[in-house]
Amino acid sequence: MALPQCPRLSKENSGAFSAAHGKDVWEYVKTNPEHSKLINDAMACHAQVTMRAIIDNCAEIFKGIESLVDVGGCNGTTLGMLVKAFPWMNGINFDLPHVVSIAPPCHGVVHVEKDMFYSVPKAQAVFLMSVLHDWGDEECIQILKKCIDAIPKDTEKVIIMEAVLDEKIGKGKSLKDVGIMLDMIIMAHTTNGKERTAKEWTHILSAAGFNRHSILKIPAIEPVIVAYP
Length: 229
Ligand SMILES: C[S@@+](CC[C@H](N)C(=O)[O-])C[C@H]1O[C@@H](n2cnc3c(N)ncnc32)[C@H](O)[C@@H]1O
Description:
Layout: H1 16-21, H2 25-28, H3 33-57, E1 67-71, H4 77-85, E2 90-95, H5 97-100, E3 109-113, E4 125-129, H6 137-150, E5 158-161, E6 164-165, H7 176-189, E7 196-197, H8 198-208, E8 212-216, E9 224-228
Parallel strand pairs: 1-2, 1-4, 2-3, 4-5, 6-7
Antiparallel strand pairs: 5-9, 8-9
Helix pairs in contact: 3-4, 6-8
The chain binds S-adenosylmethionine (SAM).
Residues 26, 43, 46-47, 72-74, 78, 95-96, 99, 115-117, 129-131, 134 line the site of S-adenosylmethionine.
């Protein structure tokens, strides 16, 4: 199904990827299935590593959640692992049509195609991994507002897995430095995307309408940010 033009706020076509290809990466992959497969396979590999860390260390945040929508969930690898580990949940894997149309079937997961700048399917909680770093602050606030609209008022949460950069960059060797490398990759591949510090996360979460959030460190590059509207 063809979707109407994306209503996202920032439309300028800057950044290295856009300069090379004449469009941003998400527009480019719509008509380049090989590049789309490259990204989907890479994200599925990343999900397999990262999901183990969240499943083994953060099971309590999924307790009581009967339905979870994974926004920008790619081919469903993430939700497939979460639903298998926490079988009381039903999963909604939500992504653009060219991604969802070739996603493999997965027990306990339904695939839904749409554009997150329009709306997010309703569920008790939202999961977002490696999505917000693809976008600038204004676009993140737009996406997060759609996530808040999708969940029941006052009861549920948005679970975000993204790098949180250390504000004291360059001190010591640790996995934190990987965040800087990711920031460079995102700078090259997206128009307004970036990795964010804890202060920057606080800014966009409160601008989107969240009352509070906590950052849980796990043995992965990305900690888990749990945000409550
Ligand atoms: C970097 S990938 C992350 C995939 C997955 N969350 C993971 O970590 O394995 C970003 C995902 O956002 C999806 N996406 C981009 N723009 C979107 C939009 N407007 N609506 C829904 N999904 C979108 C892409 O198709 C892609 O699957």
